[in-house]
Amino acid sequence: MSWRIGVDSGGTFCDICLYNTETKQFGIWKVSSTPDDPSRGIAGGVTEGLGTVSASAGDVRFLGHGTTVGTNALIQHRGVPTGMITTDGFRDLLEIGRQKRPSLYDTQADKPETLVARHLRFEVPERVRHDGTVETALDEESVRAAARALKDAGVQAVAIGFLYSFVRPGHEQRALEIVQEEFPEAFTSISSAVAPEFREYERFSTTVVNAYLGPVMETYITRLARRLMDLGLGVAPRITQSNGGVISFDLARALPVRTVLSGPSTGVVAAQEIGRMIGIPNLITFDMGGTSTDVALLKDGACRMTGEAMVHGYPIKAPMLDIHTVGAGGGSLAYRDNGGLLKVGPQSCGAFPGPVCYDKGNDIPSTTDANVVLHILNPEFLLGGRMPIRHDKAYAQISRLAGELDMDVMATAQGIISVVTANMARAVRVISVQRGHDLRDYALMALGGAGPLHAVRLALELDMKRVVIPLTPGVMCALGLLLTDLRADFSTTQIMMADEGNVDRVQAIHDELAARAQGWFTEENVAPENCGQRFTVDMRYVGQNYELPVMLCAPEGRITAQTVTDMIAEFMEAHRTQYGFASESDPIQFVTFRVEATGRVEKAEFISHPDEGPDPSSARTGAREVWFPETGGFVECPIYDRAHLRSGNRIPGPAIIEQMDATTVILPGMEAHVEPYLNIIIDTGIG
């Protein structure tokens, strides 16, 4: 037997998705995360998951892994002491930034903590001009002295960022050699390797984040690799990047900054494939876990890629899916604020101690506790019976909160749901309405363990007509790892006019990027027939400060005058679409050249099932009293087992659909049906 495994390690649960390449059989498993050592929970989850399908580690042919280790270390400022060596005069750039407040109208908002203390930032004489000429040679003794000082200061990582190193990286490369001679035990990053693009603040910030997270990820990856080896895994595991593709553990060690959005990215990949399969290409993905909610917009079946993003206050230049995160999850804590109002999140109870109903020591109610009190979640157990639930303790703590708010207990529980729904709705509007998208043209796809619980209420809040609940919503990020390819991105900034006179320069850049991609294919042992390259160029009008990506199509690798003409036309069309106009006369520039290298791998396949009629009664397991604000109290609500629903079944609301990894709510007045691939489509009743 041959198995492929996807593992997504979150802040609360570790999700396992298994796929048999011979029988097309899927298996899923879910265990609690182990925040003290995430690799322990992953190894245990893989072992248990393989046991459920009667397989062993020796049967595994692929293991892909998404992680929040880097993200959590950045959010909680648990990276390592880091030093920086930079061009003379640029010591304070990390603090000066773009001279913008974090929030334009909030005078109380604090800037994020600078990851390198000022006394650990060293300047050295060197200067490269914008055209690559050397104005001041590198003072090697200054670099050597800085390395020794950083070693004496006890730092564990060093970031090296020089001005215009993306044009001429020689000074940074020599500085790296010197630091490795003087301080070999330090994790060292240079900006020309991490983010070889212009805009020095963002480039330096990305390099610092990479260095800051480097030893953390190194420790984690080493532990995980050892545990997987001890299980008997015979293949090299892979790790997810923020762009949705996977890379080797070795590359992740060198470039941990590219894994900052590792966790949620493959959920979007899975959503893209399912949306294409069921004929709903326009989607808003809503991935609600225990700690946070991630949302993304898919237009025409594709999620927008971005080359730069602000991640928890730090600008990062790295290819990533355009995902927006908000601190709202099943573990988000509910409390009365200083003004006497109900607030939910962003603080979370995490995996340990978890919600009050987990009975592990927490006494502050969470979103999960509210769902238990309302009986939307099973008030006796979760995870298919493996996790007992203390309804009495959840009720007692929400009752205490209700007393503080002078509210009814059930109204307080529903109030928690309403507040967290409003928080998530704001996140969705950021990536949709604020960018000119009409939400009525999109369906909401619910991912994560808590997504299906809240999806229909969120859809009502946003006036969305349809909700899609995938077959395995609680492990979609793990499933996405079985649907994605190997991927690496390479880029270089070379600012020049977009005209026929630069055809030879564009050809040389294209060839250099293609060679870098080919080198990566060789390192990853990707067969020639599975290699793919996609070239783009960021373009702008002269004087603009923002660029738009344009495809660079070069048949047989040749750049011609017609290639440039076509790119100019495509840029103007993209500009017209984005901004509503395009100038026919203003000069245009090429700015940053990129190649997306893809190594295609075998993927999981979905099976279509014949229609078995609308009657879902064979899946009904019973009923329980559930409190709905629409009915003003408890009503008897039928309970269905997701595993026994069949294609064509129709389920009127109110109803609850339970499965091991998630619980789906259908409100009164709504109706759901099961489509041929066994995804549930809910009609919210909005015209």
TrEMBL record:
<dbReference type="InterPro" id="IPR002821">
    <property type="entry name" value="Hydantoinase_A"/>
</dbReference>
<feature type="domain" description="Acetophenone carboxylase-like C-terminal">
    <location>
        <begin position="503"/>
        <end position="674"/>
    </location>
</feature>
<dbReference type="GO" id="GO:0005829">
    <property type="term" value="C:cytosol"/>
</dbReference>
<dbReference type="InterPro" id="IPR043129">
    <property type="entry name" value="ATPase_NBD"/>
</dbReference>
<protein>
    <submittedName>
        <fullName>Hydantoinase/oxoprolinase family protein</fullName>
    </submittedName>
</protein>
<dbReference type="Pfam" id="PF19278">
    <property type="entry name" value="Hydant_A_C"/>
</dbReference>
<feature type="domain" description="Hydantoinase A/oxoprolinase">
    <location>
        <begin position="203"/>
        <end position="489"/>
    </location>
</feature>
<feature type="domain" description="Hydantoinase/oxoprolinase N-terminal">
    <location>
        <begin position="4"/>
        <end position="182"/>
    </location>
</feature>
<dbReference type="InterPro" id="IPR049517">
    <property type="entry name" value="ACX-like_C"/>
</dbReference>
<dbReference type="GO" id="GO:0006749">
    <property type="term" value="P:glutathione metabolic process"/>
</dbReference>
<dbReference type="InterPro" id="IPR045079">
    <property type="entry name" value="Oxoprolinase-like"/>
</dbReference>
<dbReference type="Pfam" id="PF01968">
    <property type="entry name" value="Hydantoinase_A"/>
</dbReference>
<dbReference type="Pfam" id="PF05378">
    <property type="entry name" value="Hydant_A_N"/>
</dbReference>
<dbReference type="GO" id="GO:0017168">
    <property type="term" value="F:5-oxoprolinase (ATP-hydrolyzing) activity"/>
</dbReference>
<dbReference type="InterPro" id="IPR008040">
    <property type="entry name" value="Hydant_A_N"/>
</dbReference>
